Structure formats: structure tokens, C-alpha cells
Model the fold of this input.
Amino acid sequence: MFNALGLLKERRFLPLFVTQFLGAFNDNLFKTAMVLFATYAVFNDPKMEQHFNALSSALAILPFFLLSALAGQLADTYDKSRIIRLVKTAEIFIMVFGSAGLLAAKAGYVNLGLGMMLGAVLMLGTHSTFFGPIKYAILPQHLKDDEVLGGTGLVEAATYLSILLGTILAGFISVEAAAALVIVVALVGWFTGRMVPPAPRLGAKLSINYNPFTASWHLVAATMHVRRLFLAILAISFFWMIGMVLIAIFPVLVKNVLTADERVASLAIAIFSVGVAIGSVVINALLRGNISARYSPAAVLLMAVFVVAFSFEARMFQPAPAGQFYGIADFVLHPQGALIAATLFAIAVSGGVFVVPLYAFLTTTVTKDQTARTVAANNVVNAGAMTVGAVMVVIITDLGVTPQDMLLLVAAMCLFSAWLAQKLHRACD
Done:
């Protein structure tokens, strides 16, 4: 079996790996610091907290819906390493703006600060929109065919480990420290981005369509007619719709159901991130470098089982005394704390096993000069699905549905994902 970790010694992979790791870390550090600050220091109403979380998530994905087609065209037309350098330069300015918003909100200018932070989230979504197609599309260009699955798994694992570190830090450091750190990390990411080897255009130069709506329509239509791409993109998109619901309700659930502080919220999200990262690596070992969806249906069915278990565990959780929150030590020592942590971990591992092979389908089904546009088409559909998920959270919350009950909806969505993955497996294997 190909040892994917050996790629970390290669210049054709390591600078990209580090650059995307730092970018995902920075993005998550800023957004988590913002959400935790708003949840624990600004709002005191579960409905408002959940609405704010859904709004920030929707703003983060809106650029994917509008600009992914343009990003894919540019990545397949120009040198991908050059686009990386431009994107990482923009990140520095975005983080300066977002940090100013954090500091303004902390200083008491709450409305101004929240507005600036939400603006930074929108700009970070734009940053990720243009970087996203590259981080997957560049892999078939720099790696051998039998290295692509391993490289994809490492990229996915690194993404979730960066989420882990960013999430933990956001809960443990001050707002001022977070504001400074995101600028420093952006500067380091700019430096490593300049070390990514050239990845020039492979096919004919495209005629760029700058209309976001017609470009997106044509891009998706040109991709979705390939059956296994159609099924893979639908399965990935439904998975991220599930993820959007979980992201929106999770901080609120930790605060108001598990009655724990922001550090426990960080710890819980970190456990989830570790699980996805482990699942991303495990699936490469199970498949031995082959690209197949054979384990995806069972993985997402297991995910549904664990989500249902988590819902019932949350219902039976003994809350902290009125007006108090559990800290990390209290939560760890809580009789139900270890069970909740283990269930979260199991949800995440099964999710990682489910989704990584699907991403590998995107970059290996088409020719190398079309990979960025294929990933971009996936991002457009993903963004639409995640937007639906964010709107669902707002509507369902207004109807009085609790986070515990919303988890049951997530489990039902997993069943549909399993059906899509099974259809993909039958179509390809």
C-alpha cells in the first residue's frame, strides 16, 4: 500500500499542504472566536444565538454559490500557484479588518464590531472560494495517479486538524490574542504559499464568463451529466447540508443543553475535528489507495445511529446548577461527559470515512485540465445545499424545535446520504 505520509517529504506536496493547513486554521480560529464571543458575551437568548450562527455560516458560503464558477475557470486557465499567492495576500488584509472588528466589539462598539466581523466572514468565504478548487485540482497535476487518494486524505485530515487547533485556541485565548494571531498566521501562510511549485494550465485557455449566475449554471450543467460525478456531488452536498445544521446548532446546544462554557464548546468541536481527520486517514488504509465508495453507505448509516444516540444523551444530560456553566474539568468528570465525547468522536470518524472517497472521485473522473472546474461545480452545489441547511435551522428554530430534536432530523438526512452513496457505489464499482 502506498504510504501517503511520504508525500510530506516532497516539495511538490508539502508547501501546498502547509498553506492550506494554515488557511483553514486561520479561518476557523477567527470564526470560532467570533461565534463564541457572540454566543457567550453578546447574546443571552438561544434563538438569537442560533440565528447569528446560521447567519454567519450563510455569509461564509454565499461566495461559494456566486463565485465558484469563476474560481474554477481561473484555476483551469492560469497557473494555480500564482492564484495561491494572490489569495494569500488578500487573506492578510481580510484578517486585519476582521481583527479590528473583534477589538471594536470587545471595546463596547458591539454593533460596529459584529458588522465588521460578519463582513470579514463574507470576505473569508470569498478567499476560500478561490482557494478551494486549487487545493484539490492541483493534486492530480503534482501527484501520481496512485498518490491522489492518499494526498486527498492528507489534505482532508489536515483541514480537520487545523479546525481542531483553531477551535481549541479560540476557546482558550483572549479576543485580543486571537485578533493578533490571525494576522501572524496569514503572514506565514503568504510565505509558504510562495513555495508551491508552478502548476500551469494544461488545456486550452478558456474564455472566462464573469456572470456569476450563467457561469454557475453552465458549469454545473457541464459537470452533472456524468453520472458518477452527479452522484458524488449530490452525496457530498447532502453531507455538507448535514454539517451546516450541526455547525449552527452545536454552540447553542453546548451552552443551553449541556450547560457548559466556551472552552467545553471548543473541546467538543475539537473532538469532532479529530474524528473526521482520523476517518480521512483510515479510509485510505481500508481502500489501499483505490478510489471506491464501497464503505461510504455503511459509514453514513453508522453516523445516523451515533447522531440519534447523541440526541438521547443530550436529553438525559444533568445540567449545571442554575446560572452556572460546567468548565472543562467539571465536564470531563461529569458521569455522562465521557459518553458524549465518545459519541461525538464516533460521529466524526464515520463522517470522515464517508466523504473522503467522494472527493477523490471529483479529481479522477475528469481530465486534469478540468479538475478545478469540477471541484468548483461541486462547491456551487455544496453552497446551495448548505444555504438550504442554514435556512432550515432558522425556520425550524422559530417553530420551537429544540437542538435535541434537530439532531433527529440530521439522522434522517444521513439515511438519504447513504442511499446516494449506495447508488454511486453501484454505478462505479
About this structure: Residues 46-77 form the longest helix (32 residues).
